[in-house]
Amino acid sequence: MSDKNSMNTKDFLIGSLIGGIVGASTALFLAPKSGKELRSDLNEQAQLARDKTTQFTTTAYDKGNEWATYAKEKSSNIAKVVSDQSAQVVGKVKEATANLKSEAEDAANSASDIVEDLAGDVKDSGEEIAETVEKEVSDIQAKISEETTTK
């Protein structure tokens, strides 16, 4: 909406300037004056037109510089915000990665401990089974020996 207002203001100023020049020129040509007076009036009006044009040019240049400075400040602020937020995201990703790595190491250590415990349990169970089997075999041999000696 402000762009439309800016265009309307600009068009109005240009129209006013052109209308003023045309009106002044028409008044000069229609007024009953001598050639010398007419030339003098034309020179005055031309000088006024140059002065106003210079004034408008200076104003436009100043406003353009002001808007350029404003745009630079805003874009600098936006770049800073984006940079800060990017740094925060990178930090959070690094932190999450470190946490995942730590959790993975903890899980690996836990798995290793569980395997060692199971290996120890299997070894103990294996020894118990071997002792039980040895005892049973000894009992069977003893029975066989007893039966063969009693016969």
Could you outline the blueprint of secondary structure elements for this entry?
Layout: H1 2-30, H2 35-150
Helix pairs in contact: 1-2
Pfam families: YtxH
Keywords: Membrane, Transmembrane, Transmembrane helix
Organism: Halalkalibacter wakoensis JCM 9140
State the main characteristics:
single chain; mainly alpha; 2 helices; Desiccation-related_membrane
Number of helices: 2
Beta strand %: under 5%
Overall 3D geometry? rod-shaped
Q: Mind summarizing the main beta sheet? A: none
Rounded to the nearest angstrom, the distance between the terminal CA atoms is 122 Å
Please state the CA-atom Rg, rounded to the nearest Å.
51 Å
What is the β-strand count?
A: 0
Share of helix, binned:
over 70%
- The parts where pLDDT drops under 50 for at least 5 residues are none
Helix-strand pattern: HH
Q: Classify the secondary structure makeup into a structural class.
A: mainly alpha
Overall mean pLDDT stands at 81
Please indicate the count of domains. 1
Question: Would you kindly provide a written description of the structure presented here, covering whatever features stand out?
Answer:
The protein has 151 residues and is mostly helical. It has one domain. It contains 2 helices and no strands. Helix 1 runs antiparallel to helix 2. The chain starts with a helix and ends with a helix. Keywords: Membrane, Transmembrane, Transmembrane helix.
